[in-house]
Amino acid sequence: MALFWCTEALPLAVTALFPVVLFPMMGIMDSTAACSQYLKDTNMLFIGGMLVAISVEKWNLHKRIALRVLLIVGVKPALLLLGFMIVTAFLSMWITNTATTAMMIPIAQAVIEQLYSSEEKVDELVVDRADKSATVLEIDLENDKLNKDKQARRLKKHLKLCKGMSLCVCYSASIGGIATLTGTTPNLVMKGQMDELFPGNNNIINFASWFGFSFPTMVLLLALSWIWLQFLFLGTKFKKNFGCGRKPEQKEKEKRAYQVIVSEHKQLGSMSFAEICVLVMFTLLVLLWFLRDPGFMPGWATISFNKGGKEYVTDATVAIFIALMMFIFPSELPSCNATTFNLGKNGRIRPPPPLLDWKTVNEKMPWNIVFLLGGGFALAKGSEESGLSTWLGDKLTPLQSIPPVAIALLLCLMVATFTECTSNVATTTLFLPILASMAKVIHLNPLYIMLPCTLSASLAFMLPVATPPNAIAFSYGQLKVVDMARSGFFLNIIGVLVITLAINSWGFYMFDLGTFPTWANSTGKP
After folding, report:
1. The pLDDT value given to residue 133
2. HEC string of 405-455?
3. Which of helix, strand or coil describes residue 72?
4. Based on the number of CB atoms within 10 Å of its own CB, is 430 exposed (0-12), middle (13-18) or buried (19 or more)?
5. Which of 22-26, 127-131, 342-346, 519-523 comes out lowest in average pLDDT?
């Protein structure tokens, strides 16, 4: 399966179905046990989260949020870069990074094109003024020189800014996904593997605990990425990048670009009833996720849905509940006014369509990921049942002599390198069971290596094929592979260092990583 996933000889989801056939035939697991791995709690969490994200996309709520933030940030080069990065990262926390990138890059391109065309108009104005105060010969000479030099500089600057903007969007989409449990699929793989391999882990990984650790990590990584991309594509003249000491023509250029964003925002009109409903439900979903089991106080699920010390409600329950509401709530405000009734061909009153319908879901839901998640869980369960996990763990026993910090750092670098060539979902699916076995054998808290390696799987910054956002950015034609490789290489290093810092600072105390937990001690030793 690892070979097929790495080479993509078959579609990833098709390879994920191998355990259904091979495990029963090899006597590892019976068919019922193998098939039951394909629709677990984590899969339902993914489906519920995706249904809500599809609702947000359907009613363009994500575009309204993006344009509103850009209107606040403005169009000064450094702040424009930051604005696009913040918006993309925030949206990627809740909807797929592919959808976020596909929406944000056209907006970025439109703004950059307007900046470029405005600069051309300003230059034409300067030339016209020069025409009035020079002889014909001087005009020709000056015009030729001015046109060649300025056009070359302007084009070079425009191309560099286009590259920086495209990269900032695709990188931010990958970075933003690490902040929430449902932000990107590797996070859900981690959650599912923890529940599968360590069933007594007391739900240590949930939406609130993940957010508490990963959100500060994401913010720090996003800030450092912004500084790096600004240095790479805008230069070291930070005053100029922030718009200090601008010339009048520069102000005019920025004003025209700002009008592009204003125009895009105006086209959306005022918020519709459907948008308001989706926004309220989305906010309710986030609040219910955070307050279900916040950790510092009893959550609503602990108080109301706890029987014999066992919690019956999970994050998946909440996600599916809100998703069901999307299918029930109307997209238009019901009215008793006879003139507003929507009558069908037979004269009967037709109710307004719901916020979400199955046709839309069927078009946008990535069902292949559901099978891919299930294949990973089946593979992990098969490795445990066959004794492969224990055997691999024993072979890694010599690592016990290496300091834990060095182990975490080396493994993060290895995963970050591996994920450049393979799917991040396949990477986490392959590595996490092995890492869990290794942690048990050397008596290291499994979270200490599984958590940073999961985040490192999202650090796919170097190649266009590494992740869909990179491919989307590359498809616009301004980027070369060397541009992405150069900026992505250092960003990978920065990402691994930030994640290592996070797991050894606030993460260390949040999850009590200095001790080997009882839920990971399968041998029963203290």
Report:
1. 47
2. HHHHHHHHHHHHHHCCCCCHHHHHHHHHHHHHHHHHHCCCCHHHHHHHHHH
3. helix
4. buried
5. 127-131
Is 195 within 8 Å of 201 (Cβ atoms)?
yes
pLDDT on residue 327 = 95
| H helix runs in 18-59, sequence order | 18-26, 31-35, 41-58
DSSP state string for 353-386: PBS--HHHHHHH--HHHHHHHHHHHHHHHHHHHH
Tokens of 75: 């169009």
Q: What 3 state SS string does 457-481 have?
A: CCCCCCCCCCCHHHHHHHCCCCCCH
Instruction: Give the pLDDT of residue 125.
Output: 47
Whether the CB-CB separation of 176 and 92 falls below 8 Å is answered with yes
Do 210 and 189 touch, CB atoms closer than 8 A? no
Mean pLDDT of all residues in the chain? 82
Spell out the long-range contacts of 237-244 with Cβ–Cβ below 8 A and sequence spacing 24 or more.
Answer: 238/78, 240/77, 241/76, 241/77, 241/78, 242/76, 242/77, 242/78, 242/79, 243/74, 243/76, 243/77, 243/78, 243/79
Q: Quick check: 93 and 177 in contact, CB under 8 A?
A: yes
pTM for this model (two decimals): 0.78
Instruction: Give strand ranges (E) for 26-174.
Output: none
Instruction: Answer for the pair 83, 97: CB distance below 8 angstroms, yes or no.
Output: no
CA distance 507 to 356: 38
Predicted pLDDT of residue 412? 92
- DSSP codes, 211-279: HHHHHHHHHHHHHHHHHHHHHHHT-S-HHHHTTTT--HHHHHHHHHHHHHHHHHHHHH-SPPHHHHHHH
Asked if residues 162 and 109 have their Cβ atoms less than 8 Å apart, the reply is yes
Q: How far apart are CA 245 and CA 257, in angstroms?
A: 19
On whether the CB atoms of residues 226 and 81 are closer than 8 A, the answer is: yes
- Which pLDDT score, from 0 to 100, does residue 27 have? 92
- 151 pLDDT exceeds 80? no
| 8 Å CB contact between 446 and 440 | yes
Query: How far is the C-alpha of 135 from the C-alpha of 213, rounded, in Å?
Result: 68
Most confident of 148-157, 233-242, 296-305, 485-494: 485-494
pLDDT top residue among 508 and 156: 508
Asked if 325 and 300 touch (Cβ cutoff 8 Å), the reply is no
What is residue 3's predicted lDDT score, i.e. its pLDDT? 83
Cα gap 504→502, rounded to integer Å:
5
Side chain identity, residue 174:
S
* Cross-strand partners of 354: 330
Closest CA to 359 of 54, 16, 35: 54
Q: How confident is residue 280, by pLDDT bands cut at 50, 70 and 90?
A: very high
Tell me how far apart the alpha carbons of residues 82 and 147 are, in angstroms, rounded to a whole number: 32
Under 8 Å between Cβ of 405 and 500: yes
Q: How far apart are the first and last CA of the chain?
A: 36
pLDDT the model gives residue 126: 46
In the chain, the amino acid numbered 313 is: V
